[in-house]
Amino acid sequence: MIAPSLLSADFSNLSREFDWLNQSCADWIHLDVMDGVFVPNISFGFPVLKHLARLSQKPLDVHLMIVQPEKFIREVKDLGALVMNVHYEACTHLHRVVYQIKEAGMMAGVTLNPSTPVAALQDIVADVDLVLLMSVNPGFGGQKFIPHTVEKVKQLRRMIEETESRALIEVDGGVNLETGKLLRDAGADVLVAGNYVFGADNPMETCRRLRAL
Ligand code: DX5
Ligand code: ZN
Fold it and tell me: Exposed site from 9, 69, 88, 144, fewest CB < 10 Å?
């Protein structure tokens, strides 16, 4: 699956962006929320997301790069989101947060920073619906892919099989046709792509080519 990240979209004309996104082969729309504390950047918050949710005819994949993400389960639910991603590094009581997200009726996603080993998920992977591996340090679009992520996808695929987890593997950061192919071959299910899609001459066709990998 492909989830274009809206972070690289033209924010001066979002309804035009959703015109093509809604007609594209994008499976989900990836929405990056940053608080300037967990990551060194601020993006947009719930007043903006509310409008984005109305424009989108695609399921929403919300990636919270914020401290204490458990405070916002209700807000994400009210957007009608399909997936709520919280960072492993931001949750002291991750097991509780995962179950609160599931009880709210959303897919529970746990996100790992590039420096967090896959092994950290051993005792939670069977409970989650999705694992989002960051292939750049979160905070900005358009960064360079960290190659070690391919190995992490393979490790995670093995862990998922061993634990009989049903988690999907999603990867976020620096995805293009080349890195996307490596990730796909390693066992990734969902690829997030921001700059590569929105910076392309033909975003819709770029999205289609990524999905066809
Ligand atoms: C980074 C965000 C990503 C970002 C990816 O902090 O989580 O979703 O938009 O952008 P690209 O594909 O440009 O690396
Ligand atoms: Zn993201």
Answer: 144
Say how many Å lie between the CA of residue 96 and the centre of ligand 2. Answer: 22
How many Cα atoms are found within 13 Å in the side-chain-facing hemisphere of 199?
A: 12
pTM over 0.85, yes/no: yes
Active site members: 32, 172
> Radius of gyration of the chain from Cα atoms?
16
Where in the chain does DSSP place strands (E)? 2-4, 29-34, 60-65, 83-87, 107-112, 130-134, 168-172, 190-193
Mean pLDDT of the chain: 98
How remote is the CA of residue 83 from the centroid of ligand 1, in Å?
Answer: 16
Q: Is the CB of 165 under 6 A from ligand 1?
A: no
Burial of 20 (0-12, 13-18, 19+ CB in 10 A): middle
